[in-house]
Amino acid sequence: MVAHVVISAVAAAQRAQSATLRRGAVKHLVVSRCICIEASRSECNAGASCQWLDLHIRCMGQNGPKPLILLRTFIESSYHNSSIPAVSGVNSTMSEKINVRVSADLHPELVLGLEDVTEETAPFVAPAVEAFQSAYQFISAIHEVRDAAFADPTLTDSAALLKADDYARSKLKGVTQKFDAAAVNLKRGIDYLETELSQPVKERASSMISGEVRATLKGSDKRTEILDRALAERDDEVLSAALGGPPMLSGLTKEQHAFYLRRYNEQREPEKMARLRAMVAAREHLLSRASIVFKDMDRAVGGIPVQGAQGRIVRTITPQEVRAKRDASAAIYSRHAS
């Protein structure tokens, strides 16, 4: 759990750093680097079964370190015995080590730290975890390839930049395919569970008495109170009648129908509902962060900074610029080769 907290904290720090840069004058930062340099605990209140975990995050910008960011987060007493992560924010029990040069939003551990994902439901969100593992390793590898290319004495800066970019482009498709496959597999599982949960309710709603229950509900101005009482009394006859048909037949809005159906299913099939919630949360997490892969890839590949007269970076040469010039020269070489 502390691992999830640390990764979330680093992700928040990186997002805060990016927001600062967008508002500021520095526009050519290649990599946003953040690190947890200190972690400490303190009691919430006297006698309270909780503690605060204070994380001091330092982000490095193009012109040196940025102001220290203090992130305070709540941890319950059940996690008090977990060891505080090391200075680097790395916990040895984590499936994927933290790389401060990679966006923490891509760390696979965040999927397992989602509120609706538990030890029991974790196997059902495995496609999302695997997709993020591939993305995290992909971005880490780009950084390593770039470092090696720029350290290679036989390569110019332009050739080194293209080396990193070519590697990234060659591996990107495999990562995006994993994200697409994970989204499809999770959606397939969600649809299957929703069908399994709704089918028995619909079958019971087809009886004659169910029609009378729906008519009674539609004519009542206390229909939500009736449904609340039916839930409390576990009255399947009333609940299946109201929730097994279209909302309008019972005088319910779509939102009310969905709300009561979810509560009814949680009562009838708690394990299936737990699985469903976990898979929905994992899919939403996956879809909301897919675009970060492309942004982080571009940051990892980076560019060649161009300095002005006073040593300030005035612009950055992109891989696209280098490739366009190379291709233009290659076309001339080809024309004069014969």
Quick take:
The protein has 338 residues and is α+β, with helices and mostly antiparallel strands. The chain has helices at 2-23, 109-112, 126-151, 157-204, 208-218, 223-233, 236-243, 254-268, 270-301, 319-335; strands at residues 33-43, 50-61, 64-65, 69-76, 304-307, 313-317.
What are the defining features of this structure?
4-stranded antiparallel β-sheet, two-stranded antiparallel ribbon, 338 residues, 10 helices, single chain
In angstroms, what separates the terminal alpha carbons? 66 Å
Per DSSP, the total helix count is 10
The helix/strand series, from N terminus to C terminus, equals HEEEEHHHHHHHHEEH
Class by helix and strand content?
alpha+beta
Helix content: 55-70%
Name the average pLDDT: 75
Query: How many strands, which pairing sense, and closed or not: the largest β-sheet?
Result: 4 strands, antiparallel
Which secondary structure elements does this structure contain, and how are they paired or packed?
Elements: H1 2-23, E1 33-43, E2 50-61, E3 64-65, E4 69-76, H2 109-112, H3 126-151, H4 157-204, H5 208-218, H6 223-233, H7 236-243, H8 254-268, H9 270-301, E5 304-307, E6 313-317, H10 319-335
Antiparallel strand pairs: 1-2, 2-3, 2-4, 5-6
Helix pairs in contact: 3-4, 3-9, 4-7, 4-9, 5-7, 6-8, 8-9
